[in-house]
Amino acid sequence: MSSIGDVLTRLEATIEARKSESPDSSYTASLLSKGAERCAKKFGEEAVEAALAGATGKKDELAAEAADVLYHLGVLLAANGLSFADVAAVLAAREGVSGHDEKASRGK
């Protein structure tokens, strides 16, 4: 079984490679060609589907929807010039910090 980090690294490489493909032949290229706003909307739609799957307790459906969320997050990050490494850096910086303390430290 692959680790989530390995899978996300391969996913990110695939998204990067698809940037240069025709939007007619690549779903990823099609999303990216429509801009960050469209990528964000699609990510939100997938996140809602994952939340609904989680509420029903259907594990297989939730896993499939979570995979869609991660894919669309990768596309959204790419559309904004970011990567999963950027997200990992933020998460690493938050390690060991209480969620309440971290939230309180954010600007209002």
TrEMBL record:
Name of the featured protein: Phosphoribosyl-ATP pyrophosphatase
Keywords for the protein's UniProt record, in alphabetical order: Amino-acid biosynthesis, ATP-binding, Cytoplasm, Histidine biosynthesis, Hydrolase, Nucleotide-binding
Pathways per UniProt: Amino-acid biosynthesis; L-histidine biosynthesis; L-histidine from 5-phospho-alpha-D-ribose 1-diphosphate: step 2/9
NCBIfam families: histidine_hisI, PRK00400.1-3, PRK00400.1-5
EC number: 3.6.1.31
InterPro entries named in the record: HisE, PRib-ATP_PPHydrolase-like
Main location: cytoplasm
Secretion signal, residue range per the UniProt entry: none
Similarity comment: family membership: Belongs to the PRA-PH family.
Record's subcellular location: Cytoplasm
GO cellular component: cytoplasm
Reaction(s) catalysed (UniProt annotation): 1-(5-phospho-beta-D-ribosyl)-ATP + H2O = 1-(5-phospho-beta-D-ribosyl)-5'-AMP + diphosphate + H(+)
One term of GO molecular function: ATP binding
Gene Ontology biological-process annotations: L-histidine biosynthetic process
Superkingdom, natural source: Bacteria
Pfam families: PRA-PH
